[in-house]
Amino acid sequence: MSPNDPLPPLARSVFPRGSWSEATRIADVLRRETVGGALLLAATVVALVWANSPWASAYAALRDLRVGPAALHLDLSLGAWAADGLLAIFFFVAGLELKREFVAGDLRDPRRAALPVVAAVGGMAVPALVFVLVNLRTGSGALQGWAIPTATDIAFALAVLAVVSTHLPSGLRTFLLTLAVVDDLLAITIIAVFYTRELHPLLLLAALVPLGLFGLLVQRRVRSWWLLVPLAVVAWALVHASGVHATVAGVLLAFTVPVVRSQAAGGPGAGPGMAEHLEHRVRPLSTGFAVPVFAFFAAGVTVGGFSGLTASLQDTVALGITLGLLVGKAVGVFGATFLMARFTRASLDEDLTWVDVAGLAVLAGIGFTVSLLIGELAYGAGSERDEHVKVGVLLGSLLSALVAATVLRLRNRTYRRLCEAEARDDDGDGTPDVYQVPPAQG
């Protein structure tokens, strides 16, 4: 390496290893998300079985049961409460994770952040293009669902990794998590910009009051739930009433939370700040309750056997979603990564191959939570086309999971060898040797 080279070796790797502290934190997050993925999978299976059983009418009645104060325009069905309310909790956690990555994580370095951001953009643009091409000649507003196959469901993706028992290298694991978090941010931006049917600016401005008070309290390190929760609920209700999808409130609230400690508390080196505290408190509610309940109400599509599945796929919307998730995501993520390596002089880590990247790119095609949400916004919850959306999302995600599992299984032996190498600590200092700065090479 030339002394005049502007980039250090780690920044020149497509999937840099990152710091030991960051790898440890990411591994802990992945373990928690894997449990959430298992619950999400269980809720989906229960919903599908119930919706295709002789008691399907009971499932529909439960999903459509309306509760809430009508005077505040919050007399919503249980399915709507799950989509508008519970997913706001999910996006609050995603917002906290995203801010932590870019403020205190390894991705605070723009050179490290560039790859997952570009890959996320590619992984959203290409599936949308595939969907549009499939539905270009289809009328009846089919193109409204162009954004459905653009989202990656991190919980389901990690659940697949747990099932296939791969020893995914830390660089790829970090990349997968970051890709999904950036993906969520782009998805919520798309929802706010393209799926806002009617906007009430005054109510949206009014939401800035509880949002600002919430931000003021968390900046002052106030942790009293009886102050923070009511302000968050009021902000959510005003955003919901404004016409902007209420999940946007979750991201906005998360972005007000400080990540590192203030100078008075010991400065950034003193440890994590409010973001980790709130994430620790809210993440179990998100992964253990909010997302599985949403999946339970959103995934209950009556397939009608093989003939019903075939009939659903005759709708180009379902076909576009399936191809967008299975083909578009893989091409978008892999293509963006390859182009970054080609045009930025970045090189693949010596322990990895492009087969690993291909497996990860296919895995990103597991879209569920946000894809189903966008489908409801595009075509209307409970509509016939919304039922076809669910079939397309489920089929595309299932096929992506099967292909990715096959590819990653083939690489399992290599992953195990890499993990054993990473765990070596020859000098006995408690930090694996691969995370220590190598001696200067002449």
UniProtKB/TrEMBL annotation:
Belongs to the NhaA Na(+)/H(+) (TC 2.A.33) antiporter family. It catalyses: Na(+)(in) + 2 H(+)(out) = Na(+)(out) + 2 H(+)(in). InterPro entries: Na/H_antiporter_dom_sf, NhaA. This is Na(+)/H(+) antiporter NhaA. One of its GO terms (biological process) is regulation of pH. Na(+)/H(+) antiporter that extrudes sodium in exchange for external protons. The chain crosses the membrane at residues 38-62, 74-93, 113-134, 146-168, 174-195, 202-219, 225-255, 289-311, 317-341, 353-379, 391-408. The gene is nhaA. It is found in: Cell inner membrane; Cell membrane. Keywords: Antiport, Cell membrane, Ion transport, Membrane, Sodium, Sodium transport, Transmembrane, Transmembrane helix, Transport. The keyword Transmembrane applies. It is a multi-pass membrane protein. It comes from the Bacteria. GO terms for cellular component: plasma membrane. One of its GO terms (molecular function) is sodium:proton antiporter activity. The keyword Transmembrane applies. Its main location: membrane. It comes from Microlunatus flavus. It holds the Pfam family Na_H_antiport_1.
